[in-house]
Amino acid sequence: MDGSSLRTLFSEEKIQKRIREMGTQIDADYPGGTLHLVCILKGACFFMADLARSIERDVVVDFMGISSYGRGKTTSGAVKLTKDLDTAIEGADVLLVEDIVDTGVTITYLVNVLEQRKPKSIRIATLLDKPSRRLRPVKVAYVGFEIPDEFVVGYGLDYAERYRNLRDVCVLQGPQVA
Ligand code: IMP
Fold first, then answer.
1. Which ligand 1 atom minimizes the distance to the CA of 151?
2. Which residues have C-beta atoms less than 6 Å from ligand 1?
3. Residue boundaries of the structural domains of the chain
4. 102, 129, 158, 168: which one is catalytic?
5. pLDDT tens-digit profile of 40-90?
6. Ligand 1 centre from 170 Cα, in Å?
7. Are 97 and 48 contacting, i.e. CB atoms less than 8 angstroms apart?
8. pTM given for the model
């Protein structure tokens, strides 16, 4: 017991329904061929697993690691690559899969890194979007849910590495996240 509490924002059912809709939309939007899904570790791996199975065309899955918030709630603004892709993306249709776009600093950095490798296209799919916090303009092609400026955990999202395995997305409240 640490005095924190969780309030469900999106239930497992609601998340899964929305991801199926996103998969259908993605299938409809791309003319054909293989889609190269790039999961941003660690938070997006749950979303990536469900989104990939909602897409019917061939997909390649790959992973990128970046330094995260660490134990706190606010970003330092500095992004560091901790794991690079295993596969080449030149000429590929790349879909970057994120758990949440907040300030936009992380995704802007990653798009810049990947654009240098000359993919055919790059788009972003995020489960959650906090547009009110944006510091960089980001064009997000696929958004699961827009949320207000609240700190959320679950379905991959963590606070100090906790709560990732919750099936719902919840708002974390309490003294530790004040
Ligand atoms: P950005 O660079 O500010 O857009 O931050 C994106 C990253 O910050 C996400 O991939 C998350 O790891 C983390 N993040 C931002 N907001 C939250 C939140 O409400 N809960 C958990 N992690 C978050």
1. 19
2. 43, 68-69, 75, 98-107, 151-153, 157
3. 13-147
4. 102
5. 999 999 999 999 999 999 999 999 999 855 445 555 567 889 999 999 999
6. 14
7. yes
8. 0.93
